[in-house]
Amino acid sequence: STTGYVRIAEPLQNVVVQEGQRAKFVCKIDVHDLDLQRLKVLWKINGRFFRAEPSRNRRLIFKQDRGWHTLIVRKTRVHDAGIYSCIASVGLDTDKSSAHLKIESAPDPPNNVKLVSCHGNSAALSWNPGEENGNKVIEFQVQFNTSDNPDVWHDFEERFDQKSRMVTLELYPGLTYSFRVKARNVLGSSKPSIPADRKCTTPPDRPDRNPRNVRTNTGVKGTLVIEWTPMSRLHFHGPRFRYHVHWRPHGSYKWSHRYVDDPAQGFLDVDTGDVYQVYDLQVKAENSMGEAHHPAYIYLGHSGESEPLVAPGNFSLNPEKSLEPHTAHFIWDPVDLDPKLICGKFKGYKVNTLITVMSVYPLLGLLPADNSSPIKVALSDLPAYVSLQAQVAVLNSHYTGPYSKLLEFFTPEGLPSPVQDLRRQAYGVAYVLLKWRPPEQPNGVIQGYDIAYQQVFGLSLGQIRPLMPHINDPSTLGARITGLRPEHRYRFIVWARTRKGRGEANFVDIVTAKGTRKCTIRASSNIKVDPENIRMSHYKVTPKGTPPHTPRIQVAELGNSSLNVTWMADQASRDVKYQVEYRESGQPMWHNTEYVFDKSWLTLNKNQVPVKDLEVRLVASNRLGEYVFDKSWLTLNKNQVPVKDLEVRLVASNRLGDTATSRTIALAKSPQNTGYVKSHIPDNHGYQSAGSSQNDAAAQNKGRSFKSTSWTNQAGTMIGALLVLSCYSLVFQQ
């Protein structure tokens, strides 16, 4: 059929947008479902058809959703304004709807700008307005430049209303002008017009003013430094512009003078050789036509200052005020403010504090120029618990006078700043290992640290609960907290403590690991249990440069298949993890097993060490905290260490890189193949590394009986030792 039914159910709506915004027209079409395949929708813009071809016209977007047809104009421009039409047809039946698009923007620039006349110091200018672009012009702005700086355009102070088409402009003398015009509406200013067709040159004249802000700079000794603000080119009014500078001692009738030919220069230095004397000053502007029309003002100034000659007397601590950890109260007699003694303008006093036998402490500031008798001031932000020296001196504008006698005093103890670098070193299902560094500002003698915790429930914090015992050793910089709930958030708070009390707190939030608690650790004498069964033990840091004690080791055979090795750790050490490392003899890279935390023995499978010549060592390293263990021995299967002659030593090292190595023993396979026998190797055996070559002494001592051998260290305890800082490497080699 050639007929059908189609209607535009909602006509297009007029659209008003600002330039650069998006405009959208929506055409709602009603059509029978049977005619959907025959429906055709076309768009017209100002009578011209546009089809949906996005690749050719990306600013026009056509969308269709059943009966809704949309045309979007992106980033509208002024020339997009006009009549937009939606035409829908099914066969011979057609419907159409149209609407206006109005684009508002800043006006077009004025055109046809002409210089109508140029006489004396005035000019007449005319122009025609450009398109308003949807909003009426509010005003016109005339701009000008001059021939000696044509790239810089200046605005005339006067603005002209929208009805203006011709104006008269007042100009500065001695310049050649060009003109242009801009229009402005509520959306902004237009681009500048093309400059007027002619230029206007005004006749020269004397300057209409003298330099302003005439003053002296007293920062140069023995010199009168006269300064002023250089004048704008618009005020030169003629060629050969310069400044004529006059000066004389105040009270004198005789002027001295000098010319400054550079119009951009704003100073003149005059050698006088005196100190802070009063002078009369005058700076005039002149050009080839003569001096400025208006007489120059006479100003007062001073020659350069010098160091004051007087020092405050009777400088001491104020007996009426107590000395505080960070504040000291001072008192002194004022100085005579005679400018001849101050050698300048009195500005106040300056107090310097110096840490005894150290560099200058940061300047604590200028004090008010209050010259009452006596002068009392308080200085804050001093370091606490430190020996200080203080002095006071008088100030003028540029120099500091001689200091008073040196005052020595000692600030009392205060509260420490927060601990530094508080962090979670390790954590598990039911424990966390905390570590920190001492406060940056101890402000006294650190007595120890206090620790507390809070449970965290979303954005809420539970009650602060202290952990016991308090840490009363300042070298203890870590703690292990156990008995925590799995997968739970806690906040741990640490305070440093002096004899004055706790300082500012630092805290860290942690979440324990997922899982379930397997057992409860036995509590030792230094572990306290809080009501929630949360325990804390301490971690003491070994000072840097302190190597571990030389370890005591015992090596004994256990039948034909095993070798038993026992050793003793530093008594102060705790909480170790174990790892066996092995490598083929002569190779640089070590292979290793996984760390073991909860047992004191390890087994190597033959598949792990498929080599004939093998070097093996046991490494024990700390995890920062406390862990109580029952076993202190390690068993290795000799069949998994298939070497004939074995050398053994134990190397102890701490986290700082300090090491201590035990004496070396040599083990030789017995002729009956029932175990190992021992041969002694001197202390100067000459090991280069854990994998050094075997000494011939081992072969020479084959066949001797062997039960066990041992070294002792200074700790004196064998079983049940605790490890923290030191790690021990048991080294075997063929």
Automatic annotation (TrEMBL):
It comes from the Eukaryota. GO terms for biological process: cell-cell adhesion. It comes from Elysia chlorotica. PANTHER family: CONTACTIN, PROTEIN SIDEKICK. Residues 686-704 have a biased composition (Polar residues). The keyword Transmembrane applies. The chain crosses the membrane at residues 711-731. Keywords: Disulfide bond, Membrane, Repeat, Transmembrane, Transmembrane helix. One of its GO terms (cellular component) is membrane. Pfam families: fn3, I-set. Residues 190-216, 678-704 are annotated as: Disordered. This is Uncharacterized protein. PROSITE patterns: FN3, IG_LIKE. Residues 196-211 have a biased composition (Basic and acidic residues). The keyword Repeat applies. Residues 1-102 form the Ig-like domain. SUPFAM superfamilies: Fibronectin type III, Immunoglobulin. Residues 109-205, 207-306, 418-516, 547-644 form the Fibronectin type-III domain.
